[in-house]
Amino acid sequence: MAVTTRLTWLHEKILQNHFGGKRLSLLYKGSVHGFRNGVLLDRCCNQGPTLTVIYSEDHIIGAYAEESYQEGKYASIILFALQDTKISEWKLGLCTPETLFCCDVTKYNSPTNFQIDGRNRKVIMDLKTMENLGLAQNCTISIQDYEVFRCEDSLDERKIKGVIELRKSLLSALRTYEPYGSLVQQIRILLLGPIGAGKSSFFNSVRSVFQGHVTHQALVGTNTTGISEKYRTYSIRDGKDGKYLPFILCDSLGLSEKEGGLCRDDIFYILNGNIRDRYQFNPMESIKLNHHDYIDSPSLKDRIHCVAFVFDASSIQYFSSQMIVKIKRIRRELVNAGVVHVALLTHVDSMDLITKGDLIEIERCEPVRSKVMNDALRKHIFWGMLLQSHTSVYKNKNKQLLGLRRITKLLK
Questions:
Q1: In UniProt terms, what function does this protein have (predicted)?
Q2: CB 313: neighbour CB atoms within 10 A?
Q3: Sign of the C-alpha dihedral, residues 20, 22, 28, 32?
Q4: DSSP code of residue 194
Q5: How far from each other are the two terminal CA atoms of the chain, in whole angstroms?
Q6: Where are the beta strands (DSSP E) in 339-403?
Q7: How many domains does the chain have?
C-alpha cells in the first residue's frame, strides 16, 4: 500500500514554494515505518536535501537540511514553523543527523537547542528557538506523527527531456497546420481584452519562440495604460527567412469601462474584416465608411476566424460591473456571429504558490485552477480558458510551451 503524506495540498505547496520550488518525495513516515531514529536515518541518509515535517496537536514544524544527511557529518539546518498559511524560519546552523534525531543527548555529548526525540514522541527546543519561530513559550512539543521528504528539483533530466520533445511536437504541429478546406492560407486570431491585459506581450512571446531570440515587434504598455492604439495584424515568420506560419495574430485597442477604449462598433468591423492593418483607432467614434482604411468588400481571408479574450489572471477579481457587462455583450455578439472564442489568461506564473515545475501543465495546477475559476465564476464570465505565463518566455522552455500550447488550441 502506498504511503501518503499527512500534509494538506495547500501546506505542501507553501513548503515547496518557500524552499525553492522543490518537489517533495516521501521517504519516511513515523506512523508507518516506526518511531525509531535508526530506521529514519537508514531511510533518509545520502538522499540529498531533505525536509522533515513534524505534526503536533497545534503546530506543524520541521527542519530543512540543505545538504544530504551523512553519518557523523554536519549539514546546514533551517528550522520552520507553519501556522495556517504563514511560515517562519530560523537558521539552526550546522548539525549532524545523530544530534538532530537523537533521543538521548548525553549519549553523543552534543547538546543542541533543537532536538527531535522520536522514541519519546516529542520535540525539545530552547526558549530562543521557540521565540524565533513565533511559537508559544513551551519547550516541549508532543509529536503525533512526522515525515521526511527528499527535496528534488521540480525539473529533473527526465522532465526536461519531455519538455524538449513536447516543444518539438508543438512546433511541428503549428508549422504544418492547414486551415480547414484550405479556404484561407492563414487563420486570423483577434486578441481582445482590457487595456494592459497583455495582448501585445502574448504576441511578442509567440514570435520570440519562432524567431529564436527575444523580440518586441509589438510595443508593450502597463497594466493601466496599455499602448496599442492601432489595429495591427501580425504574421510571423518561422525563423529569420522562413515561411509565414498559418496564423495571424490581430491586436487592437484595449477595452475600457471608461472613455478611451475600443468602440463597440469597431469590434464588429474588425470581425467582418472591414478594417485595414495600421488603422488608427478613435476611442470617441468608430471608423467611418468612407475612411481610407475601411475595406468595403472584405474577403474570407480578411475576416476574424477566432477571438481570444485576454485577461490578466490576477485582475479578474477586480473587474468592475461595467467591464463585465461589456465583456458579456461582446461575447453574445460573437455567439450570434458564430465566431469561436476563448479566454486567454496571462501572468499566471506570478500568482502565489506557483513553482517552475507547475508551468509544464499549468491547467492542472490547483492554485491556478481554484483561484482563476473562483474569480471567473464570481464574475459570471466563465467559459473555456487558456493559461499563459508572464511576458518574457524565450529563455524559459516551460513558458515557451505555454505559448505554443495556447496557439495550438486556438487553431483547433
A1: This protein aggregates to form microtubular structures.
A2: 26
A3: positive
A4: B
A5: 42
A6: 340-346, 385-387
A7: 2
Can you give the residue range of the structural domain that contains 225?
A: 157-411
Query: Does 214 fall in a domain?
Result: yes
| Residue 164 backbone phi and psi in degrees, to 5 | -65, -45
**Integer angstrom CA distances of residue 34 from 2, 52, 55, 62, 147:** 16, 15, 15, 18, 11
Whole-number CA gyration radius for the chain: 28
* Global pTM value: 0.65
39 in any annotated domain: yes
Pairwise CA distance, residues 207 & 212, whole Å: 9
Q: What is the pLDDT of residues 323-361, one digit of tens each?
A: 888 888 888 888 888 888 888 877 776 666 666 666 656
- Whether 288 and 165 map to the same domain: the answer is yes
* 284/320 same-domain check: yes
| Cβ neighbours of residue 289 closer than 8 Å, sequence gap 6 or more | 296
pLDDT in tens, 260-278: 788 989 999 999 999 999 9
Segments of 218-305 assigned E as strands: 232-237, 244-251
For 132, residues 6+ apart whose C-beta sits below 8 A from its C-beta are 79, 88, 90
